[in-house]
Request: fold
Amino acid sequence: MTSYMPFQDCSAKLSSKVAPLQIMADYYIRTPDREESRGPFDATQLLTLAEAGQITENTLHYDENKEEWIPIALNKQLKAEVFPDREKLSLKVHQKTDDAPEAETNARVEQGGIKVTDMLAAAERDSEGTRHLKKKEQSFQKAAALSTSSIGIMMMLSAVTLLAPHLSVINEAISGAAASTIFNYPFIIVGLFDFIMAAFLFLAVTEIYPLLRGRAMLTLGFGIYVGWALGDPMILLASAMAGFGIFYATIAQSYSTMLVAITLGIGGNAALAYLAIVGHFAGFFDSMYFELIPTG
Reply:
């Protein structure tokens, strides 16, 4: 004969295993077949979802260090906290019979002062006191959706800024079958780098974000130097906007911050690209030449 655990005892055990919800949460999660994420959750809340069967070891979580989505099973520390090697708690509720009215069955579920639905709602950040966290998550998702394509546009404009003043050099190198000579011009190399980074970003490759932050600082520092050397405040302002825009677009966690970063980044890089196309940098880039590869 199968014996059922009284729900009051079960509820007490469940309460002892579920720690109070923390204000600060660490993990965003999603299933492998969906782009929409949930969270943020801390390890205790993920344990609650795991015991309720809401997530598995194959559920993806966002690793901030690697800047990518990986299964919980590949994070040994998180796996040990969410899926410990012990017997999982299971809730057994008396089956409803024809003689037991629905109200009586619901009363059994609510014994012990805790509702399973309320507990899951809190874990899903859908309770009255945690809706602001859900709004923060939605803001993060909107920012993430804009980041790669927007930074890709910034890097493409940056490539135009550096390559446009060297079009005659590039055409001469290609027509003369001496393409290697373009490596004598450092800004052509940087421009090609920006072009490649833009291509990666349009393919939604976020692993290059650390490289882009360093590139943004180069734009900021050298651009300000160029503006100072030429005595041109427009170049100073545009370079500052371009550098800050690229940098903050790679770290923005909210939709509003991302919009500011996009405005600065695209605006600054577009201004520099325009100046390069109309010949504003004429004479300056020509002086940046190193004969690394003989031209003769």
Observations:
- The chain is about 55% helix and 5% strand.
